[in-house]
Specification:
There is one protein chain. The chain is an alpha/beta fold. α1 runs antiparallel to α14 and α9 crosses α14. The chain folds into 2 domains: 263 residues, Zn peptidases (Aminopeptidase), CATH 3.40.630.10; 157 residues, Glucose Oxidase, domain 1 (3-Layer(bba) Sandwich). The chain is elongated and about 75 Å long. The two termini are 33 Å apart. 37% of the residues lie in helices and 24% in strands. The mean pLDDT is 96.
Length: 456
């Protein structure tokens, strides 16, 4: 009987905490769905600011706009953090066509980020199709020299987690030109990282690694429909030729900024919790999913807390990172400054997988913290948030270190993400208002729970 009486007060306290958390999450979701600027911010960022490739005028406008909007929230502090970023300019729209006997068939391509230009008159050469970088070694210099290497390994359709499919084939985009150049190729074209068949070529970062500049070769992505057509024609005529022309240029690095705003902690201001996305985008579109959505959702976390009058125990900081797409300098600079000033980060959350319906989170943490986190899962289930897994979280928070830190990445439904990723159709009209706001609410809810209960 005494044991029962002892546990009754404890049970009462736990039940009260659970009820309080349920009520707070309900308030957070209601505020996000009825009274958030999240969608209107994305409208402005997409349609008034536009594309925001690092070093561009659009990126500078994005910095100014988001800083102004954070200041309007009445945060304790809003500031810019200097970061040097690469400046690469695409130039004129690329052109390409298949030359099969006397027939010329135009196909959509786009230069990969960081590529050099072709000669002004373009490049015309025979094509050799491969499925992997490793296949180059089996072909050797004799079969590759003087040709355009065509990487045609599709994203695997059988994976429900489409990020896995992306990860399993992105090496041909990132390192394809570097490896083909070693065998004497004059250029490379890469099948777009896209699960559907369409006419949108998808750009993305590529690297020449430690190759001397004299060995750099032009590289471009071809749309999935274009890749299918080229592969089919190569089976019919292995001697056909391909023409490509692009005029991209490199410039010296330029000054840009991470945009930062914070609410100071009421009990532990020295403990910092970060929420963020990357402000830069590729230049083919306005980057609404990648990663305008993550930026406005992160801003909305602080907006929601202000509107519901929630005073966090720990300092909560939103960081809009610059240069995730082609260098990651924003995340590296943030960590460098944090380390130099001995800041103590206990939690970091990133949204960089699009503005689709949230499904859960991935976490980088030890077993004790993961057990604690999974105990919160019932609080999210009424909102159909059910996936709590260990795994990668985000490129910009990846460099962040502290004595002990938990990291998380928002996991939206990924089935349509790569239809838009790095392509000309990554535009505002592809984002659903309600799905975007649900993501913001889900992020704010997780931030609230970590603020309330800390890490182990």
């Amino acid at each position: 009987m005494k044991k029962i009486l002892f546990f009754l007060p404890l049970f009462s306290v736990l039940l009260h905490a659970q009820n309080k958390d349920e009520q707070t999450l309900s308030t957070i979701y209601k505020t996000a769905l009825t009274n958030s600027k999240c969608y209107s911010w994305l409208d402005d960022l997409s349609n008034k600011v536009g594309s925001r490739l690092s070093g561009s005028e659009g990126a500078a406008k994005g910095v100014a706009y988001t800083k102004q909007q954070l200041e309007s929230l009445g945060l304790d502090k809003v500031y810019l953090q200097e970061v040097m970023v690469p400046k690469w300019v695409r130039g004129e729209k690329e052109t390409a066509y298949i030359l099969d006997k006397k027939t010329k068939t135009i196909v959509p391509i786009c230069a990969l980020g960081g590529s050099i230009a072709t000669p002004k008159s373009g490049i015309t050469a025979e094509v050799i199709e491969v499925k992997s970088i490793k296949e180059l070694e089996t072909l050797g210099v004799d079969k590759i020299k003087g040709k355009i290497v065509f990487y045609n390994r599709p994203m695997e359709p059988e994976n429900i987690e489409t990020g896995k499919s992306y990860g399993n084939c992105v090496d041909q985009r990132y390192a394809g030109a570097k490896e083909a150049a070693k065998f004497g190729a004059v250029a490379t074209i890469v099948r777009s990282m896209n699960l559907r068949l369409d006419d949108f070529p998808h750009t993305g970062a590529q690297s020449y690694g430690d190759l001397p500049k004299s060995q750099y070769i032009p590289t471009a992505a071809i749309s999935t429909n274009g890749a299918e057509l080229l592969s089919k024609k190569l089976k019919e005529n292995s001697r056909l030729q391909f023409f490509m022309k692009q005029s991209c240029q490199h410039y010296d690095d330029v000054l840009s900024y991470n945009v930062i705003g914070e609410i100071k902690g009421s009990e532990h201001p020295e403990k910092i919790m970060v929420v963020g996305g990357h402000l830069d985008s590729w230049d083919l579109a306005d980057g609404s999913h990648d990663d305008g959505a993550g930026c406005v959702q992160s801003m909305s976390v602080l907006e929601i807390f202000k509107k519901i009058n929630y005073k966090p125990k720990n300092t909560i900081r939103v960081v809009l990172f610059m240069n995730e797409e082609n260098g990651g300098n924003g995340g590296k600079k943030y960590e460098e400054v944090a380390k130099n000033t001995n800041e103590n980060h206990i939690f970091a959350l990133e949204s960089d997988s699009g503005g689709f319906s949230p499904r859960g989170f991935s976490f980088e943490c030890d077993d004790a913290n993961f057990t604690k986190i999974t105990n919160w899962k019932p609080l999210f289930e009424p909102y159909l948030i059910h996936s709590f897994v260990k795994g990668g979280t985000g490129a910009d928070i990846n460099p962040l270190t502290s004595k002990k830190i938990v990291k998380a990445g928002l996991k939206p439904d990924s089935q349509r993400y790569f239809d838009h990723h790095h392509a000309a159709n990554d535009t505002f009209d592809a984002v659903n208002k309600r799905e975007l706001e649900l993501g913001a609410a889900t992020m704010a809810s997780l931030m609230y729970l970590f603020d309330q209960y800390g890490i182990d």
